[in-house]
Amino acid sequence: MTTQNGSLVLLKIGYGVCPEQYVTIGGMRTTRFLLNNQLIDSSHKESGKWRHLLIGAGISAVSISGAGVFTDAGSETMLRQHAFTNRGANFCICFGNGDTLIGIFMISSYERLGNYGEEEGYNLTLESAGEVEYISESEKLAKTAES
């Protein structure tokens, strides 16, 4: 069995025009993606020894954390402003295999770092603040073929 190589993840933020357009903040060299589904236990006296879960109910949340480098000072400024004002923003996260996550996220932690004379980097954690759309590369190809 082969393993999947890690690849750069692009972080993009929307700048509020309709339809939404995105500017690239930078590449994330290390990433962590977590989809959390809170389940609702609907077990009752007649369930016996097995748990019953209420299908289609509960709350889903996405958390993305990573570290990377900025593409330019403007992208750093935009990200910092969203972190300081605690506003949600449309983010687009593009994975190396072509899959994409799009949704409103809030920045729950933001760190800017760097050494003198070297590239400036960031660590951040994004928390979903609404529905998140996952678009696989194969879905994109199918839509393109239909057009």
Report, as a whole number of angstroms, the end-to-end distance.
36 Å
Q: CATH topology, which one?
A: Factor Xa Inhibitor
Structural class: alpha+beta
Low-confidence segments, ≥5 residues, pLDDT <50? none
What's the SSE pattern? EEEHEEEH
Q: Output the radius of gyration.
A: 19 Å
CATH class: Few Secondary Structures
The tally of domains stands at 1
Average pLDDT works out at 86
Total beta-strand segments: 6
Pick out its properties.
147 residues, alpha+beta, 2 helices, globular
Describe it:
This protein is α+β, with helices and mostly antiparallel strands. The chain has a single domain (9-146), classed as Factor Xa Inhibitor (Irregular). 16% of the residues lie in helices and 49% in strands. The protein contains 2 helices and 6 strands; from the N terminus they run βββαβββα. It has helices spanning 73-85, 137-146; strands at residues 9-14, 22-38, 59-70, 89-94, 100-114, 120-135. Strands 1-2-3-6-5-4 form a 6-stranded antiparallel barrel. It starts with 8 loop residues before the first strand and ends with a helix. 16% of the residues are buried. The mean pLDDT is 86.
